[in-house]
Amino acid sequence: MLYDQSPEDGTLTPTNFIIKENLEIPEVKEEFSYLYKYGMSLIAKEVVDVDTIKGIVKDRLIKRTGLSPEEFDSWLGY
Fold first, then answer.
1. Taking the model in full, what pTM does it have?
2. d(CA 52, CA 28)
3. Rounded Cα gap, residues 20 and 17, in angstroms
């Protein structure tokens, strides 16, 4: 989410995309939903504990949206 990949040569450059201003773009919501579900699946597989995932979700997902945790869940449809 922090970098864009060039389709020509695969190089990465910092993105200019502002997530907070584009929450209603379907691809944005899909990406966050995928990452959230992936984290939950790691808990179910006992790869990572609940507290670790909670911290990651708050710091790396929710914070990027500018939403509260409750708003984030609602935005994703949970």
1. 0.83
2. 24
3. 9
